[in-house]
């Protein structure tokens, strides 16, 4: 039993010394025993002020390895690890902080370097602005969508949506100009909601525009009816104005002529003429009264005139009893007088 234990102890000691000599001998160490470390990050695209983590790892999981990080050849820090990656936390505040970075894995006097790693600093996009242009016919509508983000590192990819459903492929723009998407569809009479998305190479910073609602008139609409109806309405209005003008103008002229023909003597209040004032004459003709032939009057300003018309009645009497009428001789012939 003791002989067996001594044999195991001998071989264990021999293996440990052999392994240590192999580790110490960097020149004779094989590449697969101690390969170059690997330096990586979860993302290589960052924005200014962002915190990042760098991982340095060697595939040899049995050795105690010392890892050191460098930027532009400048030493940044050291960590020890066995069998798992070590993490270096950094802040990218300026352009020089973007790299290049290198990691060194070292075992005693044997050290190896990783490949260089650089970060790309990108400015995030801002919320894009969506505009909608609609050209509508009787049965169809032609829609043009424009989307642009005024800030953000190029290139920027734009995608258009209708009610959260993608209706366009990603449209990439390498210049600061709006992305455009056109389509045609039938009039449905329903409201349609559109929005667009803007993103660049910076992850987790996608921005969306406000929703834009467009109302359709439906298939029974007539967008050209107003254009056809407008000339007819103008023609009817012109005819109506002409009819009113020809109807009112003669009345206005007649009224104006009547005012000019009225006597201008403001002192004249009335002109009266009587057929007879003899009661005997009135009694000889039943139901006949003394009547006023004509009455004209002027107001104080002489502008407005009021004319009263009367129909005097004449009958034949004895020549002796007739009155003189405006110095006319008896026996003159009388007729209806209208003034």
UniProtKB/TrEMBL annotation:
The gene is MILR1. This is Mast cell immunoglobulin like receptor 1. GO terms for molecular function: transmembrane signaling receptor activity. The lineage of its organism: Eukaryota, Metazoa, Chordata, Craniata, Vertebrata. One of its GO terms (cellular component) is external side of plasma membrane. GO terms for biological process: cell surface receptor signaling pathway; immune response. Residues 1-19 form the signal peptide. Keywords: Disulfide bond, Glycoprotein, Immunoglobulin domain, Membrane, Signal, Transmembrane, Transmembrane helix. Residues 35-120 form the Ig-like domain. Pfam families: Ig_C17orf99 (PF17736). It comes from Propithecus coquereli.
